[in-house]
């Protein structure tokens, strides 16, 4: 009985993380009123529009037919739409960060990963970047310096595998 309870707890926890990730990565919710946060908001909106358009296009044939297995097709179409929407969003964010850097400005964004960790990322106009992931027990930061060297810092207790 204990393994079943642990399994159900994991399902609920990870289901919450997926819903939280979808909401924070595709719904435009700017927390700051800067140009980079507005551009990140636009990129998230672009990803959401991509998901909606793909779902509308893929499920158009299933909406009027009462075929068996239609629910499975909707679920698979939703997964494909989310994957393609995420690629479109990340591509738009990469383009926006390059444009901001070309203008001599830094590009900053925050988000949530699928495992529930919050991250912040900044791409500076001098070619350096920094990304920090904030977990419950530790914070992991990775960055580059002006000479191209990659650095990593882990604060908090390390969890040994």
Can you lay out the helices and strands and say which pair or pack?
Layout: H1 2-26, H2 35-58, H3 60-63, H4 70-102, E1 107-112, E2 118-123, E3 129-134, E4 139-144, E5 150-155
Antiparallel strand pairs: 1-2, 2-3, 3-4, 4-5
Helix pairs in contact: 2-4
Short structural summary:
This protein has helices at residues 2-26, 35-58, 60-63, 70-102; strands at 107-112, 118-123, 129-134, 139-144, 150-155. The chain is an alpha+beta fold and 161 residues long.
Global mean pLDDT: 80
> How does the overall form come out from the CA principal axes?
flat
How many helical stretches? 4
Major pleated sheet: 5 strands, antiparallel
Name the poorly predicted regions: none
First-to-last CA distance: 26 Å
Side-by-side strand order of the widest sheet = 1-2-3-4-5
As a percent range, the share of helical residues equals: 40-55%
Indicate the proportion of strand residues: 15-25%
Secondary-structure class: alpha+beta
Number of domains: 1
- Strand element count: 5
